[in-house]
Amino acid sequence: MTADATPLELEIARRLEAVRQRMAFAAHNAGRSPQTVQLVAVSKRQPAEKLVAAVKAGVRVLGENYVKEGLEKRQQVDAWLEEQAIALPQWHMIGHVQRRKARLVVEHFDAVESLDREELADELDRRAERAGSRMKVLLQVNLSGEAQKNGVAEGAVEELAAHCLERRHLEPVGLMTVPAANPDPEASRANFARLREVRDRLQQRPGAEAIQELSMGMSGDFEIAIEEGATLIRVGTALFGPRDDSA
After folding, report:
1. Domain 7-237 top-level CATH class
2. What is the pLDDT of residues 13-40, one digit of tens each?
3. Which stretches does DSSP call E strand in 54-183?
4. pLDDT number for residue 243
5. For residue 217, how many other CB atoms are within 10 A of its CB?
């Protein structure tokens, strides 16, 4: 951080360092290298100024839950970073995606972590073909069985993965899950372990060897996720502080 850093930049840098220390401690406890875990900074309902500060502090991936909000902030953030000659981050869509917004997602995001149905896979594939690109996707798996949560059921993961692998412009690279909310981080361990087991079974299928990523764990439980094999953790509050849900 430069000597002319603003108070906001210093605060975000401090929070990022604290998160990285927690990540490193959890990785070492699990006998893993901290470099095997990528931080996705969840920027839902956070102002663009905080996102810029995070990137300046070293964040390389930003995760957005809503397409419209993500597009608006990406325009601001990328413009500010380009003015300061700072490398641009990747942007992941981590929230539910409607088919009618697939074109915008393909054009403005680098990966989708929340692919949960064949219809969306087909639309993303068509849009990526028209754009002359390939879209990295993670399949969202609903392991908690909660009706209000998106995600494919565990028993249907292999069928959805096979469907995605047949799409020429999709690149399935992993799985994602959101466990049931619980104040005890240990309560999430079983779901994280199950996602790893699902991933390991998938990798035994011909052509599915590249499905390696496990996106799991958030601010309150990412240490448990890392111990169970997470390669991507989605951290918002611990990095940015409380979000503005009134927006």
Report:
1. alpha beta
2. 999 999 999 999 999 999 999 999 999 9
3. 61-64, 90-93, 111-115, 135-142, 152-153, 170-176
4. 81
5. 29
